Amino acid sequence: MVKVRAPELNGATGWVNSEVKLKELKGKKVVLVDFFELTCVNCIRTFPYLKEWWNRYKDKGLLIVGIHTPEFERSKDMDFVKRELKRFGINWPVAVDNEYKIWDAYANMYWPRKYLIDKDGYIVYDHIGEGAYTETEVQIQRFLRDLNPSVELPEPIKPLRPEDDLNRVCYPRTPEIYCGYFRGRFAGKILPDIRTAYNHPIVQGDGIISLIGEFIVESERLIFIDGKLVLNFKGNELNAVMFGDEFVEVRINGRLIPENMRGSDIRVLDGKTGLLPKDYRMYNIIKTEEWGIYTLEIFGRGTEIYAFTFGSCAV
């Protein structure tokens, strides 16, 4: 196996918590570099494991370094980054990679992605996406022992969520849906960047957005002027990256969201189920044990929606 030296973490537009230079850590630390995005559900699902590894191993030679490479323009804002890192309890150093310079140096193409760097500065492990938590922790321990042969380490952690268990079943799910014209799929014609009244047909196909009412469709977001979005999807979890200062009504299959399907951000207000997306972030709308094919309706005014993501795993 040819060893590849880890590129230096140059080009960040800012750092949170502290700045890191890999050349200063040679012989002192094992480094886990984590490429992530604070609105990415797959990244967010890894946070509990990263936090546990940080607590277990930060005093035993491990340094975690997050690389926040934004997917959307709003995700570049430093106030947003600081707020969300605090909300998620992330205390390790994080580089804000708005210009994709670190991303490009590592030839990365994925959120999330983890690179493990040994005490000599070489990349020794590489994992794309969620999962493989035990495998990753075993590799962390291996190179911590290489750094300090006498270090005492615990047994790898057990799955922190039922859906992470190897006995889980993952059913088909709708792939990620983008809401701007650059990557979105719509049931009818779109007029880019212009306030327009739409009356799209309701399409039964999976993952196609229908607009009814007034909207502005921009390259990476959809802005409600006053209208309804309809979307058919399959899975047992639905999340949306959103922002707005008014309550957004949400229905499932033409009715209020049942209590056993309400995601963590759904509330009941004036007899309606929905949410108030006053902070730009990812919101959990549907979370249920029952996989199914559903019709989502969102009624909004002034609301921005960037993307929908889905889950489908159950024990």
Characterise this structure:
With 315 residues, the protein is mostly beta strands. It has 5 helices and 19 strands. Strands 9, 10, 11, 12, 13, 14, 15, 16, 17 and 18 form a 10-stranded antiparallel sheet that branches. Strands 1-7-6-3-4-5-2 form a 7-stranded mixed sheet, covered by helices on one side. Strands 8-19 form a two-stranded antiparallel sheet. β15 and β16 form a beta hairpin. The longest helix is centred in the middle third of the chain and has 15 residues. It is globular and about 65 Å long. The model has no long low-confidence stretch (mean pLDDT 96).
Main features:
about 325 residues; mainly beta; 10-stranded antiparallel beta sheet; 7-stranded mixed beta sheet; 5 helices; 19 strands; globular
The beta-strand count equals: 19
- On the 0-100 scale, what is the average pLDDT? 96
Characterize the main sheet: 10 strands, antiparallel
Reading the helices and strands in chain order gives EEEHHEHEHEEHEEEEEEEEEEEE
In percent, how helical is the residue content?
A: 10-25%
Output the structural class.
Answer: mainly beta
